[in-house]
Amino acid sequence: MRNNENCIAIYSRKSKFTGKGESIGNQVELCKEYIKVHYGEEALRDAVIYEDEGFSGGNLNRPAFKEMMTAVKERKHKAIIVYRLDRISRNISDFSGLIEELSYLNVAFISIREQFDTGSPMGRAMMYIASVFSQLERETIAERIRDNMHELAKTGRWLGGTTPTGYASESVKSITVDGKTKKACKLKIIPQEIEIIKTIFDVFVETNSLTITEAELMRRRLFTKNNKHFTRFAIKAILQNPVYMIADEDAYRYFQEQGADLFSDREVFDGTYGIMAYNRTDQEKGKTTVYLPIDKWIVSVGGHKGVIPGKVWVQVQKSLEQNKSKSFRRPRSNEALLTGLLFCRCGSRMYPKMTQRMTADGKRIYTYVCKMKERSQKSVCDGKNVNGNTLDMAVVEQIKRLEEDRENFIRLLEQSRKFYTSNHDQYDTQLISLRQEQEEKTQKINGLVDSLTEVGDGSAKSHIAKRIEELHRECEAIDARIQELERLTSQQELSDVEFNMLRQLLSVFRDSIDEMSIEQKRAAIRTVVRKVVWDGTNVHVILFGAAEGDISDTLRESKTHRGADSK
């Protein structure tokens, strides 16, 4: 975009794709007409259009909007024009902050529908008033969604989405709610998976440890639906999920004591079915999912079989809460230089584990430990630990020596040149795959958007909207990867300037590394080293630019094994 402080920005947004009514195209055309009448033909020619299609007005986390605001901060626009106020946001906080920022930047905000222009004090005042009504509408919708959740809680139905491990979703012909018949789904048990769930609860009750439970699942070769090892986080999520809980007397008493919104009578908690809990999370696009306290939950008896007695489930929750206070806290800072670069022979990262012992020169002694070895308690990986102080020193010294072998280093730099060009075919294949995946997700979004018109204002609408937002986030991540690969494929080779700079790196490294701070040393190593692999005996240092299988140098056992821990 050319730098033009007289340029006007046109912003349009629509939550779903449609060619009717206030579509993206219609909004833009109305804004263009406004510019033509009030600013003239020249301003219209220079106008820049920003479009966000398929994004809600709940927050400002939208790609085109962010791009526009970056241009505004760079003084490339003198005004922003929208067709209607809520095209920007329905949130008062977001909107008022935006208006204040635009006022500070001396950029006008114009809404055609409401005939507001922040170029005048009255226009700014009226803009705030209108935004209040926009947020009121949003909060009214949220209240209606909660009312719908209350109605759903009476049925104990499954609302869709990813099913919890141990269950699958099955359609039931009808469920009667206040005399009305609706199609619905409920959960049914997957025998093999539910046995894993029972094992997880049994092991945790016996050991009172997420770490030991994780290791035991690895030892027994029990995997997730995606054929991966269970992590402590996944195990904790399973243990905290009330869907596995049998709706019995203990369950009823627990939820009553915790202040949950109970929508099933006490008599229904007869030990036959499981628990369904609604409103457990607060999910907002662009933000991490927040788990709500139990007094915010809407709880009812579901149509599925529970597998964990209420007394056991409640005991597990108390244990998890108690374990919070004694959980391990990793030191915020340490002397380790290879964190993030060092890998075990099994492919897992190795991290520094600090000890209370000190070296002769007063530095804390630390050991690099394989994460998989720790997680599985040696059942998956039993590789040797390695003394971190010795390893870091050996790697630094070996990199220093590379500068002395000028011919070898030139060869390595030539490999760096090839690294950028030899992967083009691989990048192109990945690009094709990513673009196909992006297209498929876009089609899913369009299909879900179309279905919104058929579900009315029921709770299903909010769940469809959340799924659309999830798909948008996935599309954004794919788009970022596409841009990264396109950037790599555009680099045909290292420029002469970059090549010469790399040639000088090792000289600087050799002369200055000993005087650097810990942070500076880490940064310096990362300009030269791409990866370090510990195979239990030798350490392989892979320099920047080398292919994955190329080992640029090997530190022999005699240099590092003396300080290795053979646990």
From TrEMBL:
UniProt name for this protein: Recombinase family protein
One Pfam family named in its UniProt record: Recombinase
CDD domains in UniProt: Ser_Recombinase
PANTHER family: DNA RECOMBINASE-RELATED, DNA-INVERTASE FROM LAMBDOID PROPHAGE
Start and end residues of each Recombinase domain: 164-326
InterPro entries (UniProt xref): DNA_bind_recomb_sf, DNA_bind_recombinase_dom, Resolv_N, Resolvase-like_N_sf, SSR_resolvase, Zn_ribbon_recom_dom
Segments forming domain Resolvase/invertase-type recombinase catalytic: 7-156
